[in-house]
Write a structure and sequence with these properties.
This protein has a single domain, classed as D-Maltodextrin-Binding Protein, domain 2, CATH 3.40.190. It contains one helix and five strands, in the order ββαβββ. By secondary structure, the chain is an alpha+beta fold.
Length: about 60
C-alpha cells in the first residue's frame, strides 16, 4: 500500500497488536487509513491484545 501497488487490504484472521502496529503506522504515514470491519477506528491498548478483522485502504480509495 505504501508503494502505491494496492488500494485495499482486508484481514479477517487473527492477529495481535504487535503484528499490526508498525504496518498501521506505515499506512497512516503514506496517507491511508486502517479501520475495523465496522468502519470504527482500529485501536490499540485493548484489555485483550487480539485484534478483530480490519481493512487498510489507500488515501485514494473511497468506500461508499
Amino acid at each position: 500500500m505504501a508503494e502505491g501497488t494496492a488500494d485495499i487490504y482486508y484481514r479477517h484472521g487473527p492477529t495481535m497488536e504487535w503484528d499490526t502496529a508498525a504496518g498501521h503506522a506505515v499506512v497512516l504515514n503514506a496517507g491511508g487509513d486502517v479501520t475495523g470491519l465496522n468502519g470504527e477506528p482500529f485501536l490499540y491498548g485493548k484489555p485483550v491484545m487480539l485484534n478483530p478483522g480490519f481493512i487498510c485502504k489507500s488515501g485514494v480509495l473511497q468506500i461508499i
